[in-house]
Amino acid sequence: LKEENASLRSKINKLQIFSETQADKMRKLEKKLEENKIKEEKEAQDLEAMVQHVEQNLQLMTKRAVKAENNATKLKQENALLQVQLKNYKTENEALRSGQSASLAVVKRNADLALQNLLTVITNSRSSIKQLVSGAESLQLVADLLKSIDRISEVSEDGQ
């Protein structure tokens, strides 16, 4: 019986040591799991903040593009009006040359004024078109950034 008791005590001691070792491992794993949860939460918050920032930039660029588009439309209308005006001045100029209207100097001044207005509209139109192109390039950059965010998310999920 003494031998059997000694053997059982030895087994109990070994089981207690094993149990303590397993409990330590479990505590370490729980701590690591908690650290991973905290890390994932922070990454998710950072990603959400980045997405919000990108969305704000996208809204701002969309606003700018719409404004530039409206400006371009307005300038096109003004350009068309000035072209009609220029055509009228040219007609009047031709009429003056044939002696059917008032002074040639007035017609020349009107034609010069129309030409100056037309050149101003053309210059403004070019500027608006450049703004539209810049806005489109910015929107493309944001779209590429959003695509890369999806890739980052896919890599993070695969890496788990």
Automatic annotation (TrEMBL):
**What UniProt keywords are attached to this protein's entry?**
Coiled coil
**Lineage of origin:** Eukaryota, Metazoa, Chordata, Craniata, Vertebrata
Q: Which family does it belong to?
A: Belongs to the ENTR1 family.
What's the protein here called?
A: Endosome-associated-trafficking regulator 1
Which gene is transcribed and translated to give this protein?
Sdccag3_1
Q: Which PANTHER family match?
A: ENDOSOME-ASSOCIATED TRAFFICKING REGULATOR 1, ENDOSOME-ASSOCIATED-TRAFFICKING REGULATOR 1
Which superkingdom, per the lineage?
Eukaryota
> Is Coiled coil among this UniProt entry's keywords?
yes
Q: Which organism is it from?
A: Pandion haliaetus (Osprey)
In this entry, which stretches build a coiled coil? 19-92
Q: Which GO terms describe its cellular component?
A: centrosome; ciliary basal body; early endosome; midbody; recycling endosome
Biological processes annotated in GO: positive regulation of cilium assembly; positive regulation of protein localization to cilium; regulation of cytokinesis
